[in-house]
Amino acid sequence: MLPLAELHVHIEGTLEPELLVRIAQRNGIRLPSYDPDVLRERYAFDRLTDFLDVYYDNIGVLRTAEDFYDLGSGYLRRAARAGVRHAEIFFDPQAHTARGVPIDALFDGLGSALSDARRDGMSAELIMCFLRDSGPDKAMLALEAALPFRDRFIGVGLDSAEVGYPPSLFVDVYARAAAEGLRRVAHAGEEGGPEYVWEALDILGVERIDHGNRALEDPDLVHRLRDQQIPLTVCPLSNLALRTAPPRLADHPLPVMLEEGLRVSVHSDDPAYFGGYIDDNLARVCEALQLGQAATAQLAINSFRSSFAAAERVEAWVADVDAAQAAA
Ligand code: ADE
Ligand code: ZN
């Protein structure tokens, strides 16, 4: 099995309908249906905001530390089966605290799930994301509420509806995060144009761009990303489901990104909604694009080199990728 680092997965986007039903029943919450297949029928989207409506609706069932533990541990078990050795997992605290869920429930539940995974040999970390469509003041409050748990997460990200909420709005929040020694990433260039990527780099000082597909529209930006080897975490099945890439996987821009010398890696985004975890994303995109073993291994190596893990661990995982490729 090819070793991988998962750098772009939203833990709330791993809420499979089966678990959703189980947690809703446990918490006495009404759902439109208790049949996971019927719930799954709603998972057809035309754009990011259509998806986010369902995503926020569904996560309303998550209330207790046990719910977050079940969510996190279910994902981490699946990730281990996908070959994930290191995971940097997004979570959206504002989407829960705004509903009255205490922030301790998130950190306790997700933290216990991560502890179990570490005990089983996986490396796993949390990155808290700000909901850009809730604005910068709420983001700052979310950061301040999370700082008492500073040792339980490694960085900050920016997600939710992109267009109309440019990265520059969050300059003060990211400066505060940097002052706290937090790593910085942001979704940019998923639906928003290349200017969102420029702002994330120049104004927020992010070290990695989530998605970034639309960066390809700006040759100067492509230059910058290549020269500085700024990582892009690309999510092919998400792009397909949300129509942020051409409708056929065979036309996905991943080969252009590789040819341009960009440091891209493949990830899953919201696997419960988009039809596959990191292993499925990699297998399906490599098959559709007819990427050979060497390119597939390069994507795996990039995933580790784009991570925030310590250099010596990264090099050990890269050696494992080489060994897996040699054995294949
Ligand atoms: N939150 C969860 N998934 C997301 C995505 N693909 N883009 C922006 N925000 C998200
Ligand atoms: Zn995402």
In short:
This protein is α/β, with parallel strands linked by helices.
Structural features, described:
This protein is an alpha/beta fold. The protein has a single domain, classed as TIM Barrel. It has 16 helices and eight strands. The chain has helices spanning 17-27, 36-40, 48-58, 65-81, 93-97, 103-119, 136-146, 171-179, 194-202, 219-227, 236-241, 254-259, 271-274, 278-288, 293-305, 311-327; strands at 4-10, 84-91, 123-131, 155-159, 183-188, 208-211, 232-234, 264-266. It has an eight-stranded parallel sheet with strand order 1-2-3-4-5-6-7-8. The longest helix has 17 residues, at 65-81. The protein is globular, with a radius of gyration of 19 Å. It binds adenine and zinc ion (ZN). Adenine binds next to α3. The site of zinc ion (ZN) has 6 residues, from β1.
- Helical region count? 16
Question: What's the gyration radius in Å?
Answer: 19 Å
Query: Strand fraction band?
Result: 5-15%
Strand order across the largest sheet? 1-2-3-4-5-6-7-8
Mean pLDDT: 98
Helix-strand makeup class: alpha/beta
Shape: globular
CATH superfamily: Metal-dependent hydrolases
Distance between the termini: 9 Å
Could you give the count of β-strands? 8
Question: Ions, cofactors, ligands: which are bound?
Answer: adenine, zinc ion
Largest sheet: 8 strands, parallel
Query: Which CATH-level-2 architecture?
Result: Alpha-Beta Barrel
CATH topology: TIM Barrel
Order of helices and strands: EHHHHEHHEHEHEHEHEHHEHHHH
Look at the structure and give the CATH class: Alpha Beta
Low-pLDDT stretches: none
Helicity range: 40-55%
**Number of self-contained structural domains:** 1
